[in-house]
Structure formats: structure tokens, C-alpha cells
TrEMBL record:
This is N-acetyltransferase. It comes from the Bacteria. InterPro entries: Acyl_CoA_acyltransferase, GNAT_dom. CDD domains: NAT_SF. Pfam families: Acetyltransf_1. PROSITE patterns: GNAT. Residues 12-158 form the N-acetyltransferase domain.
Length: 176
């Protein structure tokens, strides 16, 4: 069951995303992104790999209902001659439509990025630069990257540590 009013947003807590939440997460993703979401390019980037539990989280309201989820996935930038640069794909980030604009998505993103920052790999996502720019994401490094499907180039974003450099070209795909 999804939350029904913004009063529930005040008591949100973030917890690890566990396997028992799989069905509620799928319902939330359907509600947020639609039933046709599986055809999107981002889904091709995470095919046949499990989400990284330590870099994913669930937002629960005061009654323990799932009102948000964020998953992160092992991703690679595959270059010439078999070279692979490990990355993390952030998303999908889903929030119950009745609780949008309450800061839940931003809280989950900050939580996931703190965990990602403890790893040696940068974060990548497909999303609106206006929303993700304040979190350090930009399309500056991704212009020469290929993806397994259509993508608006301005929405393919990476978040690099200061001074970090990624390959200018390569093909993004699941890291197995």
C-alpha cells in the first residue's frame, strides 16, 4: 500500500533495500514510471545483474510502508581491447506520487551517494541535469560514450571525484 498524504513524509526513515521488498518496489516502480518501463535504455544497462544492496535503500513511512526506493547497479564502461572501467549506475529512484517534492528522493540520493563515495568507482545515471547537477552530476565526461539504446545525450550524467578522469569513449553495459 502506498502512502496517501504528505503528512506521512515527516516520519520517513531510510533502510537497506532487502529482498522481501522486491514486490512492493516493483509496484512502486510501475506506479512511478509505468508498466512499459522495462523497454528503457536504463533497464538494458542493468540486465541480468543484481542491484548492489549496500548502495540501495528504501524509504519507509511511520507505519513501515514503502514510499520510496533507490537502487544502484554495477556498471562498466567497456573500451577497446577488453578494457573495462567500473562504475555504479544509480537508479531508478522512485517516490510515491502522493509524496513527491517532500525531499524523499533527495534524501535517498544523498544516502546512496555517501555509500558510493566509499567505493573507488564513480556514479552514472540517466536523468535531468537540472535535478542531478547540484549532486555533482554532469554530462561533461559522457559525450563519447555509447549506450545500448536511445538516450538524450544531455541526460547521460556522471559524477566524478575531483581530478578524476574517465575514458572519453566506450560502451556502457552491465558489470558482471
Amino acid at each position: 500500500m502506498m502512502a496517501t498524504n504528505s503528512a506521512d513524509a515527516a516520519a520517513i526513515r531510510l533502510e537497506p533495500l532487502v529482498e522481501s521488498m522486491a514486490e512492493p518496489v516493483e509496484r512502486l516502480l510501475d506506479l512511478t514510471f509505468g508498466y512499459d518501463r522495462h523497454g528503457r535504455t536504463a533497464y538494458r544497462l542493468r540486465e541480468r545483474v543484481p542491484a548492489a544492496a549496500s548502495l540501495s535503500c528504501a524509504a519507509l513511512d511511520g507505519e513501515g510502508r514503502l514510499v520510496g526506493s533507490l537502487q544502484s547497479w554495477p556498471l562498466g564502461l567497456f573500451g577497446a581491447e577488453g578494457a573495462m572501467t567500473p562504475l555504479w549506475l544509480v537508479g531508478p529512484i522512485a517516490v510515491d506520487p502522493m509524496l513527491r517534492n517532500q525531499g524523499i528522493g533527495r534524501a535517498m540520493l544523498r544516502h546512496a551517494l555517501a555509500a558510493i563515495d566509499r567505493t573507488p568507482f564513480p556514479a552514472v545515471l540517466i536523468g535531468d541535469p537540472e535535478y542531478y547537477g547540484p549532486f555533482g552530476f554532469s554530462a561533461d565526461a559522457t559525450g563519447g560514450w555509447a549506450v545500448p539504446g536511445p538516450v538524450e545525450r544531455r541526460r547521460l550524467l556522471a559524477r566524478l571525484a575531483p581530478g578524476a578522469v574517465l575514458p572519453a569513449t566506450g560502451l556502457l553495459g552491465p558489470r558482471r
